[in-house]
Design a protein that fits this description.
The protein is an alpha/beta fold. The protein has one domain: Alpha/Beta hydrolase fold, catalytic domain (Rossmann fold). The protein is 46% helix and 16% strand. It has an eight-stranded mixed sheet, with helices on both faces.
């Protein structure tokens, strides 16, 4: 073998090794990123017992709540992948009424939204609260910052469309990740045409924004762009969608629904710029904010202000 052929073969071999090594590195990195971002909530960590403990710590009388209102248990079968979506339909006297769907955030269950339920109930609305994926009694695999979760929202909008009168309105309130779920649900089924408005409390952003914030803060010595590239590629192969597909602001751009966004400039989980992006994307939306509350804390810190924002918004739609 002459020297030229030997050099050529060595060059090809080295190139193959580099390609194989790079591919393996991308695959392994993507797998690690995917595992750490697609199961940020799990039923063993996020369950009713945790919610009950939170009730006790914050003085919420769950027994009194149950005695005051009718709580009707519902178990829908997901039209997307067949898992059970448990919910409570809560009302005072009349089941056939305007209804607000409450969507909890990451790390919560449907019980956690009960803090907000009396506010809507006393204003004459019924409330439906359900467990998102991998939370409470919903055992669907993977948490996807609202992408797969939005199919469950669409199923409950379809349920209410049949359960209440056609003249009754459906609204959605979403807290934190629940806000992202609510936005992305606008692209699912009858949601865009049947829902009357969205209320987004401290909404998180899409996967690109949130993962860049989360992984960037870890500072683990691997370039952020490489982590994002690898995780995005693996997610695409595993679940069939890319980070860019999980964008609440893009869904708001394609909607004409009235939107109220409530947030805080001091929110460190969902920084203020995310709410501003959604406000800019949603034509005619209202952005209401406080200066100093923690993530999803405005309701607890400024309850009268919060209620005024919500119902001046909702009442304006009745005119």
């Amino acid at each position: 073998m002459n020297k030229r052929k030997l050099v050529k073969r060595i060059t090809i071999g080295l190139a193959l090794l580099i390609v194989i090594g790079f591919t393996a590195t991308v695959w392994i990195t993507g797998y690690i990123v995917f595992n750490n971002t697609s199961q940020m909530s799990s039923n063993d960590r996020v369950n009713a017992e945790n919610s009950m403990s939170f009730f006790e710590e914050n003085g919420f009388d769950y027994t009194a709540f149950q005695e005051k209102y009718t709580m009707e248990r519902i178990d829908l079968t997901s039209s997307y992948d067949g898992h059970t979506i448990p919910a409570d339909l809560i009302y005072t006297n009349n089941k056939d009424n305007d209804t607000v769907i409450l969507i909890h955030g990451l790390g919560g269950t449907r019980l956690d939204t009960l803090y907000f339920a009396p506010m809507f109930l006393k204003h004459g609305y019924n409330v439906l609260s359900y467990d998102q994926r991998s939370a409470g009694e919903n055992f669907a695999q993977y948490t996807t910052l609202g992408y797969l979760e939005s199919y469950d929202t669409a199923d409950y909008v379809a349920y209410l469309d049949e359960a209440i009168g056609a003249d009754k309105k459906i609204h959605i309130w979403g807290g934190s990740m629940g806000g992202s779920t609510a936005c992305i649900a606008l692209s699912r089924g009858i949601v865009q045409n049947r829902v009357s408005s969205l209320i987004l409390d401290s909404p998180i952003g899409g996967m690109v924004d949130m993962f860049r914030l989360r992984m960037g803060a870890m500072n683990i010595g691997i370039p952020l762009d490489f982590l994002m590239f690898s995780g995005n590629l693996y997610t695409r192969m595993a679940l069939g969608f890319s980070y860019g597909d999980v964008s609440p602001e893009e869904c708001l751009k394609n909607s004409t629904l009235p939107v109220l966004i409530i947030t805080s400039k001091a929110d460190e989980t969902a920084p203020f710029f995310l709410a501003e992006k959604m406000h800019k994307a949603a034509s005619g939306s209202i952005l209401a904010f406080v200066e100093d509350s923690a993530h999803c804390g405005a309701f607890f810190d400024y309850p009268e202000w919060y209620e005024e924002q919500v119902f001046s918004f909702m009442d304006s739609q009745k005119k």
